[in-house]
Amino acid sequence: MHEIALCGSILQILEQQSRAQAFDRVKTVRLEVGELAQVELEALRFGFDVVTRGTLADGARLEVVDVPGEAWCPRCRQSVRARERFDPCPECGGYHLRITRGEEFRVKELEVE
Questions:
Q1: For the chain, what are the domain ranges?
Q2: What pLDDT was estimated at residue 99?
Q3: Is the pTM value of this prediction over 0.70?
Q4: What is the CATH number of domain 3-112?
Q5: What gap in Å lies between CA 54 and CA 72, rounded to an integer?
Q6: pLDDT-based confidence at 60, cuts 50/70/90?
Q7: Count of CB atoms within 10 A of residue 44's CB?
Q8: Could you tell me if residue 16 is left (phi over 0), alpha (psi between -120 and 50 degrees) or otherwise beta?
C-alpha cells in the first residue's frame, strides 16, 4: 500500500511549510488527485489519519479535489477523456494516447492556525 508512503510525504510537506510560514496546526489539507494517479482514496484517508496522529496535522480534515483524466490522440488530433491509463481512444480506437491530465497528486491548499 503505497498510500502510507504518500501520506508520509504529505506530512513532510506540512512540516516544511510550518517552519517556512510559522504556523502550528493544520486544520485542512486539500489535495489534487488525478483519476489516473493510481491512488486508492480510502486507503489514503486511512493512512493520513494514522501518519498524522500526534503531529501538527492530528485531526486535520483531508479534502480531495478529483482531476479527470485526459489524453491527446495524435490520430484524431484532439483531446479525449481518459478513464484508464491504457484504454484506446474513445473516438478512433487507437492506442497511442498521450496522457495530458489526470496524473496529478499534489497539495493544493492548506488551512492552518
A1: 3-112
A2: 97
A3: yes
A4: 3.30.2320.80
A5: 44
A6: very high
A7: 22
A8: alpha
